[in-house]
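BACKBONE GEOMETRY TOKENS:
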Amino acid sequence: MAAAEGLPPEASRAPGASGSAGSARSAGAAVAPSGVPGPPRSAGVAARSALAALIRRDLTVLRKNFGEFAGRTIMQPFLLVFIFLYVFPVIGQGVGSGGGTAGESAFATVLVPGVVSIAVMFQGIQSVAIQMSQEFGFTREIEDRVQAPCPIWLVAVARVLSGAVQGLISAALVLPIAAVVHAPGVRPELHLHWGVVLTLIPLSCLAMTALGLLLGTTFEPRNIGVMFGFVVLPLVFLGGTYYQWTELSAVEVGGFPWLQTLVLLNPLIYISEGMRAGFTDVSHMPLYVVYPVLIGFCVLFLGLGLRNFRRRVLS
């Protein structure tokens, strides 16, 4: 896998993850430059060293393939805002055009945070779920990773953390594009609330990469299409990307807002609403609901993903 991505074969293993012999040396005595063994390292120190090495390995691959990463990350959000915020208004079919440019601008304000949310979600799935399914599949790279001198679950955590870093980069790339691509007269009203931005985006990235771990250890490589059709697409369209959760109260049966209630099962709705709280002044779900629920989803996905990961490795 790493050799195909531009790294030499010997670099496909993280430092300290080169096999059982290397693992034993790393977990045991540290070797001084003179070759004389130093004082033994504790298991915790060895695990932290292996974790850092695994993350550095993933980020090195990302750096060497950053152009491909940026293009893959930007393309879908760019096309989304280009069609909805530029092409549609220009041809007279803009969403909210019944209210003139003010209505179209209001839709743009709602859409931009949703586009960033989608970018974070897709990055979590691509960087963890798809890679994980390949490593458990034909590449079998996972066999190299689990030889690192650390617990098996820490190998999965390293992938989640490196994926979260990629999610942060995705958000930083997509937000400027989503904010500037629009037709003349259509301008999203963005007001950054830095306290929310700097806390919610990292939490969202962790939640989505934890979801990626769960999906990647649940679906076989041959079933990736099923994952996108029955999991990813419903998350996107019921995740508040194109609309505000507060407006769904109008969709009701017998006075019960069934859709507004149903989408509460979707983790993406909390990310989209949190992004609106961080980027705009429009109405949104209360933050005292967004943060605890996102933390709960993160813990749930990570716990189930780590359980599945251990089962797959030991099977």
In short: DSSP finds eleven helices and two strands in the chain. The radius of gyration is 22 Å. The chain has one domain: 41-314.
